[in-house]
Amino acid sequence: MTMLTTTRLPLIRHGGPDDLFAWHDGRPVTVRGYLAAVRDLARRLPEGGFVLNLCADRLGFAVGLGAALLRRQVSLLPPNDTPATLRQLEDSYPGLVCLTDAGAGYPGMTCIEALPQGGLDRLSAAVSPFDGDLAFPADQVAAIAFTSGSTGRPMPQVKSWGTLVRSVHGAGTALGIAGLGAAGLVGTVPHQHMYGLESVALLAMQHGLVLHANRPLFPADIAACLGDFPGRRILVTTPVHLQALLADGTALPPLDLILCATAPLAPQLAIDAEARLGAPLHEIYGCSETGQVAVRRTSATAEWLCIDGIRLRQDEQGSWASGDFLDGETLLADVIELKSDTRFILHGRSADQVNIAGKRSSLAFLNHHLNSVEGVRDGVFFMPNEGGSGTTRLAALVVAPGLTAETLLARLRERIDPVFLPRPLRFVDALPRNPTGKLPREALLRMLATPQRD
């Protein structure tokens, strides 16, 4: 990392105190109101090193992030809020304080509501003069994000303020965000996840966008949130949410940009989305360890372009990412074909490569063909735990109410080598996706082990 300790980077990059910062509970929130709420919460936070930001309200989350930075406290961003996860975090970070939405609470934990009682209007009127120069050292630790971890225990990923800001600036430049002005931004992904943190909360804060405080999931709710903005609009989503949105057929207000991440996006889905929604769709590639790495317009090219400051190299271990704002190098968990140190083609995760009877394929390839079968609403291949015989067999879970196993297997035989046909093939009502649309392996194994009802 090349940034000096003396480098300070602003909390937000809006033009002035009366610019819109967010849309919250049917009302606009100005930059003045947001900064007043940040300082109010900073005064209410007790001494300590860590805050557990569990706010579902995006405005409350952004206020909590700013207040923690102001108090030089670190925001913990958990993968979920299950009792087991919260106990593990309490054990690892004694004395942490939990930031919540109004009325929310977690038994046994010290909780503080992020937004002030009485509303932001009271604070805005009371704060004078306006101070819009809130900035923090680039090397200040801003957040610790967590991956689920192979052991089931959350694995910490420490992020400095400079790393986060530079990453978001690089992505914004690659996506042409500056040309959209003060566009309204709606996201369907949780902001405690790195994708949501960078591409929803921080993208808005660092590019002068207007952040919608809601996190809609259903098509009608997405349309309603987008409709709250009169001007330009950005939708940040996932392939799963995008597919559901297109299948539903709900009409959306005009869009100017669609961002997508968390899972491979089929080119045909990207083409359909652009045609139906009337806006360019860009994918973001990254991981919790590095944050955002590269972008591409999926309908136009298979190549990814690294964001400004990121470079790749390869050796016998795999592909490594480094950058001006990253600490050292990170080994990426994907099979990558390098075209240059800033351009590449992604061939799927290294762990997704399968070898059965001497034949090779990838789970991404197999999932593409499974989900391309007419009548399949959702489906996934995965490698179950090996049985006592040691024979490698793929399993699949599929949502396809109108198909039989015989019909589906026959259609798959037309698309993939028979050695990769799933055994077993289980029909289910829905796949166990998490809030970002991913499918945790443990959840797939539990579903596969559950006896199937007649």
TrEMBL record:
Keywords: Ligase, Plasmid
Keyword Ligase: yes
Domain AMP-binding enzyme C-terminal: 392-438
Pathway: Lipid metabolism; fatty acid beta-oxidation
Residue span(s) of domain AMP-dependent synthetase/ligase: 136-295
Name recorded for this polypeptide: Long-chain-fatty-acid--CoA ligase
Top-level taxon: Bacteria
EC number(s) per entry: 6.2.1.3
GO molecular function, one term: long-chain fatty acid-CoA ligase activity
GO annotation, cellular component aspect: membrane
Main enzyme class: ligase
InterPro entries: AMP-bd_C, AMP-bd_C_sf, AMP-dep_synth/lig_dom, ANL_N_sf, ATP-dep_AMP-bd_enzyme
Source species of the chain: Azospirillum ramasamyi
Pfam families: AMP-binding, AMP-binding_C
Subcellular location per the Swiss-Prot or TrEMBL entry: Membrane
SUPFAM superfamilies given in the database record: Acetyl-CoA synthetase-like
Membrane topology of this protein: Peripheral membrane protein
